Amino acid sequence: MGTANTMACMVETIGLSLPRCATMPALDHARESLCRRSGQRIVQLVRDGVQFRHILTESSLKNAVRVCLAIDGSTNATLHLPAVASENGAAVTLATFDWMSRQTPKIGNSRPASRLSVVDLHEAGGRPRPPAVTGGFLALYSQLAQQANRGAVLSAAHAAHPREGCLPGILNG
Fold it and tell me: What is the pTM of this model?
């Protein structure tokens, strides 16, 4: 998976965008609705006094590391996530990636290392789908930009039907 798609998935995993935002194709007819819901949610977050630091926590960054490893995200995440963590006083380093990589199943399979793309991942349930499988490793109750907690988002993701070969760890599980 390329860097831009990986980082979009990381932003969504952290909770800074709505579910399925990271993998939705640019020309998808649902994009307009997602944009409207995103704008409405941002306004509500401001009204509720929710700040960036309430969502971007060490726990949410570690969730992003775990999901990056599971979906076989870009190695550039090993630069970007620790940099963001450092700016926010969180302890996420290369050692975090190393330690988590020893426990995290690789379930993703998309370009450039595969014939499948991020669109295939979207059709398989989007970015919420892989954590639905690795949910036992994630902090489920960290705050998200959406109103539901992470546990509720992951429960909804179990309903998706993966495209064959896109998330082989799901099909074998």
Answer: 0.74
Q: With contact defined as beta carbons under 8 Å apart, do 106 and 72 qualify?
A: yes
Q: Report how far residue 171's alpha carbon sits from residue 164's, in angstroms, rounded to the nearest whole number.
A: 8
Q: Distance from CA of residue 130 to its chain's centroid?
A: 8
Model confidence over 111-160: pLDDT tens digits?
Answer: 566 666 666 666 666 655 555 445 455 554 454 445 554 444 444 444 44
Q: What is the mean pLDDT of the chain?
A: 76
Token pair belonging to 29: 């007819």
The DSSP annotation for 105-134 comes to: ------TTSSS--HHHHHHTT-TTHHHHHH
- Whose CA is closest to 121, among 169, 79, 59? 169
CA distance to 83, 86, 138, per residue, from 166 (Å) = 29, 33, 21
Tally of CA atoms within 13 A in the half-sphere of 164 that contains its CB: 0
